[in-house]
Design brief:
The chain has helices at residues 23-26, 40-55, 77-80, 115-120, 157-160, 189-211, 252-257, 272-280, 293-296, 334-344, 383-401; strands at 5-8, 11-14, 57-59, 62-63, 66-68, 74-76, 100-102, 105-107, 125-133, 145-155, 217-224, 227-237, 240-250, 264-271, 320-328, 349-359, 366-374, 404-405. With 407 residues, it is α+β, with helices and mostly antiparallel strands. The structure holds phenylalanine (PHE). The site of phenylalanine (PHE) has 10 residues, from strand 13 and strand 14.
Length: 407
Amino acid sequence: KNQKNVVIQNQAYQTDEWTNVSPKILSYLGKNLHLKKDHPLCLIKDSIVEHFYSKYMKSTRTPLFAVFDNFSPVVSTFQNFDSMLVRKDHVSRAKSDNYYINESTLLRAHTSAHEHDLLKSGLDAFIVVGDVYRRDTIDSSHFPVFHQIEGVRLFNKKQLFAKSQDSYNELKIFEDGSLYTDKQACHTLEASKLVEMNLKQTLEDLVCDLFGKDVVYRWVDAYFPFTHPSFEMEIFFGGEWMEMLGCGILQQEILNTAGAKDSIGWAFGLGLERLAMRLFNIPDIRYFWCQEDAFLSQFRGCKNIKDINFKPMLSNQPPVVNDMSFWVPDEFCSNDFYDLVRSLDTGIIESVILKDSFVHPKTNKSSHCYSIFYRHTSRPLTKTEVNVLHNDIQTAVVTQLNVVGRW
Ligand code: PHE
């Protein structure tokens, strides 16, 4: 058998039919933008951590939340999925949506992948910051690597009901009850509501601190396999509602399995790029990977993140739009195409949209037509470089994805 290895951070992994990491995606490992002083993602991370450090104390001298920002993004499917109760047949496990190293190992798709280990180690309040990896569409707000902050806080009976001393003895966290939209079967309504209020207050305080007191936000119900009830917070910014974060009360089974069966807790996960794009007015997610001084210098030595208003280095250059049509084989998925485009992109592709798809009535073959928008974030493009890349993509899509070109 043809057993191949892939080496990641000095460790060899055997590849199999799940392997879909490319050299390009692996080149992002270890970049750790959230740890680069003066990088906008690091500035935001620092101010969020500072918010939690100064606002929540265990005793007068010890911060409540332990912070971890240096875990390897290489995790097991157990950490990323099973430990968070994502079932074996759940769509979020699909090969088309994740970067697998092999059947049991992948690049984490969310920082929730570390919750189980940290809970198991006995922590009851922590924050995890890290790079996460997802196969996705190509546009100004999506990049296959982005950064998340995860927060978790547990409460035992004493901590939860501390403010209701009179009735403390009658109040309970757990009951053998029923599942409702606002609570899990094993939680009492009063415990669930107290934790929900604490969660929402914590996140409202955070966004007020980041965006200022006038920030307009709303709570929407959501679904995650690992929390119930679950919510999303949306912020009104630039004329539209933008999803900011997901959160909820952790499924008790997760705490029980990790050895925290007497506590109830909340968790949230927040995307740093989205936050930074809104806070600093950064119009394209590719800027975060830009090495140019014209970008980085705008954040250097910044004292207060509210003082920054990003100025794009290139204004109002129209994109060059080039279409590409082909007949696709049965096993084709759009994310395979986007990934291939990503792997060849020299930094000049802004977005790719599926413009049209149809099935030929006679041959039953499917055709896809994609529009590729070419635009660099900081310099004008030449016709030649666009054509060279466009041709390279056409060649690669035929040889690697078995499509039949219609050009
Ligand atoms: N992990 C979720 C995501 O990436 C966010 C989340 C974290 C939701 C914790 C609830 C609790 O979308």
